[in-house]
Design the sequence.
């Protein structure tokens, strides 16, 4: 009987420059070292069955990433957490683990909201001191168009305004400010944090991105953690 | 430092190359350690992390309480630019300290085309390039690795070299360095203490003297006691040799990212073009029990999904079949695969490959090396046409549909007929593929990839006296093959001949090339092994400015009595044997493998007091 374990984990400063693939590989190897009874896919090239909620871009830290693991044998979530943490390199920590029913919809399909914290340094003083005005201007806009280039070189225009939900700005010093905001993430609608920051500030600074967490935004506008939604 | 790096890293490609928290990396307390050594790999991280010798050394040194080893790599060009902009010197990954702060910086010499990166790395670390320019505040610069067997082009930049296998020698070197530091010896005195260690070569204690015709007259020792010959180090018994039970597991995708164990060292097949086959003799096998134990520990400590059984020719390992079958059985439940880096051209190899790739038959690679039997006899590649046909027939019949064949062009005595023979062979293999695949259920067309490199004569081989084909002639041969291989189902790849030419110049170069190298780096050359960064015209300019003719090194036929810049490096294989092999090549006579037949008289075993070690069972006919 297969079981499904869902974890919340963090990606810290030490491993911020790992790409999504690097992180996947690192977790896969930690699972093998931990001798966790992971299930394998069928086929010519069996792969361990685990999946992440969303791809976290290179350079971004996070306090709330999620992953599902399919196990061949039952393992208590607490034990799973302990075993995996013993094998994960510095900077990656399992914060919580729960067992969820096998039928729970995949993280990738469910997670659609990301809370972000972006620190922007080396800004012109006029920008840094005007943060609340700039946010208000953005909020009152009907639309905010950004252009994206796909791998084939095609350019596509996307309106990100309806995909950004809450914005709070805070001036740290003359040239530094921080922005807290939620935005759509996932396969259906996706916004890159840098698109939001650029749309609001309209200026280049030095960005440090951090994801505070991933969530599920229900149709009734309630927001829940993936650990509670099954 | 950390702050600067934090600002730079988001701006460069693949920043994980420059971070430092990989699993099993070793971070020691800098202030408590007597001797700090940086292991510098003159290429990017993902290439350097693939090197087994480098991994072994890292762990051997770090096992000592009085020494530490850290890693440093050549920064990619975008990183180099940022480091200069932010005034950040080249640093070692673990402590992020500048290379200049180390006691010793060791560079591994894996291929000639990485030499420009060595000088560039010294520049980036703000360490003067020349031994004569460095002060007591600079680290000692040492080198090791296969190209040490002719390191004269680097002689002006290197304080000392360790020739041959370093597992034991590194301890002797470190012991001296620890004591020397304790006693407060200066560099000169320290080098004098290192000099008596077997395998240690100190270039500045020798001076080259040239004949009027520019050839070398002698390498004259300048210091009393400097050995005339530097005898390479050999680990007698691999079962006793230190092998780490942990490898660093990189976060990013690197070349050969897997558990690697060395099933045997050395090769006595005696291919006449092959430097590795000459410099790593004798053959020493590890016993299957030791290998299995090493693998078990490494799989556990790394979590890798693949085990590679590496060596110059793993198919020759006495227990290869048993080992492969045991490992496949033991690790299949854990989702860990087994792989062999190279296959011999014989049906046994196909059986082995079938064990490994039971389901996913990705492709098989064989290296006939030359297109005609005549030329294969010349190079002593003991593979017949029938061997090859039988082997590929077996492979296609077993379900493979993609075969890759490796060849060389520019081999001594080669004619256009030999070159055309490559195309003939490839077409025949394709025809066999069509025939065999028709008989199976596989509804795929066979494909044959033909990969052709250009031969570079190497020191310490029977072909060290040969002229390298000119660029024009190689191009002519490549064009002939291009025409002949315009066949559906055959895919033809070849190498840039200009890089082979530069490799040829440096592989048989002497100290006079040091100036050219420095000039080329000044003019912007680095990453010469990367086609997109190789600057041929700039290299020619450097030769021109230094008044050095590169063709004199690459394209000149040498006579038997000529003294070579690498003659003082004693591989154990006698120069007389190499010359005899060269004559046998021209007579198209092959020489057998001394593992299985009579001694070929290379003089190694008696000279170095070593012997081939094969792991035959007791009483199973181990006398031969």
Sequence:
């Amino acid at each position: 009987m297969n079981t499904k374990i869902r974890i919340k984990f963090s990606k810290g400063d030490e491993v911020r420059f790992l790409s999504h693939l690097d992180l996947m590989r690192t977790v896969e190897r930690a699972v093998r070292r931990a001798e966790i009874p992971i299930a394998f896919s069928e086929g010519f090239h069996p792969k361990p069955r685990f999946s992440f909620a969303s791809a976290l871009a290179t350079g971004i830290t996070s306090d709330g990433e999620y992953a599902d693991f399919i196990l061949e044998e039952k393992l208590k979530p607490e034990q799973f957490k302990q075993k995996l943490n013993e094998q994960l390199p510095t900077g990656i920590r399992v914060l919580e683990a729960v067992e969820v029913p096998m039928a729970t919809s995949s993280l990738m399909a469910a997670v659609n909201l990301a809370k972000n914290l972006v620190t922007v340094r080396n800004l012109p003083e006029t920008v840094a001191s005007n943060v609340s005005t700039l946010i208000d201007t953005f909020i009152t806009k009907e639309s905010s168009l950004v252009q994206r280039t796909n791998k084939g070189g095609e350019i596509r225009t996307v309106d990100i305004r309806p995909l950004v939900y809450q914005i709070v700005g805070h001036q740290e010093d003359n040239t530094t400010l921080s922005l807290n905001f939620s935005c759509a993430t996932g396969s259906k609608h996706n916004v890159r944090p840098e698109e939001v920051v650029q749309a609001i500030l309209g200026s280049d600074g030095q960005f440090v991105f951090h994801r505070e967490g991933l969530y599920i935004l229900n149709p009734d506008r309630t927001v829940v953690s993936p650990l509670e939604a099954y | 430092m950390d702050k600067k790096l934090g600002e730079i890293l988001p701006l460069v490609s693949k920043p994980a190359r420059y971070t430092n928290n990989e699993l099993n990396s070793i971070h020691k307390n800098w202030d408590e350690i007597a001797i700090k050594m940086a292991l510098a790999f003159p290429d990017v991280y993902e290439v350097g992390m693939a090197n087994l010798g480098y991994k072994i050394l890292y762990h051997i040194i770090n096992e000592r309480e009085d020494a530490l080893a850290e890693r440093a790599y050549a920064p990619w060009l975008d990183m180099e630019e940022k480091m200069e902009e932010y005034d950040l010197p080249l640093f070692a990954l673990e402590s992020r300290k500048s290379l200049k702060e180390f006691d010793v910086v060791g560079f591994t010499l894996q291929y000639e085309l990485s030499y420009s990166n060595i000088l560039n790395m010294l520049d980036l670390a703000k360490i003067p390039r020349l031994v004569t320019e460095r002060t007591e505040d600079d680290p000692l610069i040492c080198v090791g690795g296969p190209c040490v067997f002719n390191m004269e082009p680097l002689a002006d930049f290197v304080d000392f070299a360790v020739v041959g296998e370093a597992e034991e020698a590194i301890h002797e070197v470190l012991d001296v360095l620890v004591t020397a530091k304790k006693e407060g010896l200066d560099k000169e005195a320290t080098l004098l203490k290192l000099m008596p260690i077997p395998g240690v070569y100190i270039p500045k204690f020798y001076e080259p003297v040239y004949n009027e015709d520019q050839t070398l007259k002698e390498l004259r020792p300048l210091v009393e006691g400097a050995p005339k010959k530097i005898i390479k180090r050999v680990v007698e018994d691999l079962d006793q040799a230190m092998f780490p039970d942990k490898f660093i597991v990189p976060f990013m995708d690197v070349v050969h990212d897997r558990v690697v164990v060395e099933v045997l060292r050395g090769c006595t097949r005696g291919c006449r073009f092959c430097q590795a086959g000459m410099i790593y003799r004798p053959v020493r096998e590890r016993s299957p029990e030791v290998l299995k134990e090493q693998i078990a520990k490494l799989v556990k400590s790394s979590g890798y999904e693949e085990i590679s059984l590496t060596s110059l020719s793993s198919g020759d390992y006495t227990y290869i079949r048993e080992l492969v079958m045991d490992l496949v059985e033991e690790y299949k439940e854990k989702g860990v695969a087994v792989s062999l880096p190279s296959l011999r051209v014989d049906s046994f190899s196909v059986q082995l490959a079938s064990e490994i790739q039971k389901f996913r038959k990705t492709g098989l690679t064989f290296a006939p090396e030359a297109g005609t039997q005549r030329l294969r006899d010349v190079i002593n590649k003991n593979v017949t046409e029938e061997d090859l046909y039988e082997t590929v027939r077996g492979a296609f019949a077993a379900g493979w549909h993609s075969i890759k064949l490796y060849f060389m062009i520019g081999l001594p005595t080669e004619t256009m007929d030999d070159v055309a023979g490559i195309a003939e062979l490839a077409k025949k293999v394709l025809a066999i593929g069509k025939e065999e695949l028709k008989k199976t259920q596989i509804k795929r067309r066979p494909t044959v990839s033909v990969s052709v490199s250009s031969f570079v004569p190497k020191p310490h081989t029977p072909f060290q006296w040969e002229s390298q084909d000119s660029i024009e002639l190689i191009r002519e041969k490549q064009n002939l093959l291009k025409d002949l291989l315009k066949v559906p189902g055959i895919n033809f790849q070849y190498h840039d001949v200009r890089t082979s030419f530069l490799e040829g110049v440096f592989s048989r170069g002497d100290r006079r090339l040091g100036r050219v190298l420095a000039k080329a780096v000044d003019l912007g050359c680095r990453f010469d092994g990367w086609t997109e960064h190789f600057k041929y015209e700039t290299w020619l300019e450097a030769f021109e400015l230094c008044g050095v003719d590169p063709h004199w090194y690459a394209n000149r036929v040498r006579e038997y009595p000529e003294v070579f810049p690498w003659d003082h490096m004693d591989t154990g294989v006698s120069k007389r044997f190499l010359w005899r092999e060269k004559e046998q090549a021209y007579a198209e006579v092959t020489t057998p493998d001394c593992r299985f037949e009579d001694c070929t008289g290379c003089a190694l075993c008696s000279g170095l007091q070593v012997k081939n070690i094969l792991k035959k069972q007791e009483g199973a006919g181990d006398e031969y």
The interface with chain A takes residues 7, 9-10, 15-16, 19, 21-23, 249, 251-253, 299-305, 334-336, 359-360 of chain B (CB under 8 Å).
